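Attaching the record inline, Q. Sequence:
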Amino acid sequence: MQSWGLTDPGCKRAQNQDAFHIERLDRSSMLCIVCDGMGGAKSGNVASTLATDVFVEEVRRNWVSTMDQERIDQMLKSAVKLANFTVFDQSQQFPEFEGMGTTLVAVLIRSRKATIVNVGDSRAYNINSDGIRQVTKDHSLVQMMVDRGELTPEMARTYPGKNLITRAIGTEPMVMCDLFHIEVAKGDYVLLCSDGLSNLMDDQEILFEVVHGVKKQHCCQRLLNIAKNRGAPDNVTSVLVMI
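Structure, as predicted:
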């Protein structure tokens, strides 16, 4: 496996409130995470960095290369729970952090199996020569409206309330996460990204850049360049893993 990641404040914001991390757990296992913070200039970056650090450290502390899928699932859920509690606790203790929170999307890839955990509207995609598939489902107001038939997916892309999320790390004492399992083969890709990218590029554009781009190590930069050429009003973060 090879992996690359990149984060940038974008064109309009002075501060980058996104965070990401890539770590090899062992020879055949990799952990990647993207968090998109919220809560104002003083605390959004604190929430995303804290959630990333706590989540990664909890996985690192518990990781055993021989653990079965059930234990992996439980480990990831526990890491989300601890990240949520830590961010929430800090928001309660310090007035300057009140109301802070963050999205979280992470993938643990072991051999040919990928386990993805998600809270919020940062996304995970599975990409190969057959196409692109959004694995995660946004926890957002517009996704709820799409589910109810009030908006089409096309309408949701430009809906004024698109950035309102219904779940986040650190805004409540407890949070529910979604867990997904996918099979990956040699030549497949897993892409994690914040909404600063997914709001500006549709699936087919992302597919083209990942699959048909000449140098894979430059893919995250190409995605960032496209976002910035379109104004990039938000922070932009992507992590790409090639199996």
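The longest helix spans residues 69-93. The mean pLDDT is 93.

More tomorrow.
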